[in-house]
Amino acid sequence: MLNDGIKLKRFLKTNKVLISTILLVMIINGNGYAQDGVAGINEANQKVRSYFDAGTELMYAVGAILGLIGAVKVYQKWNAGDPDTGKVAAAWFGSCVFLVVVATVIKSFFGV
User: TM segments (predicted)?
Assistant: First the structure.
């Protein structure tokens, strides 16, 4: 085991030029397959726009789930007679409204 490590270190030390040349050829060869920058940006733009409706629906679903969880938490506090029930209800309601507003604003801002 130890000899293998020593042999590898010796190989790397003596063949630095060979290894550098191989890596350089691999990098140069990879550049030949690159696409046009503008085409890549346009393709990414179209892919993001195609996922946007699903993301908006996901935000609405998360808002609905948070609304249900918040309703249960507020109900529990109300039944326990907590004095800060109104604050907790406002916080949960505000978070749900925030999610819906953010999804709508982002949708209209980007024109999707």
Answer: 58-76, 88-110
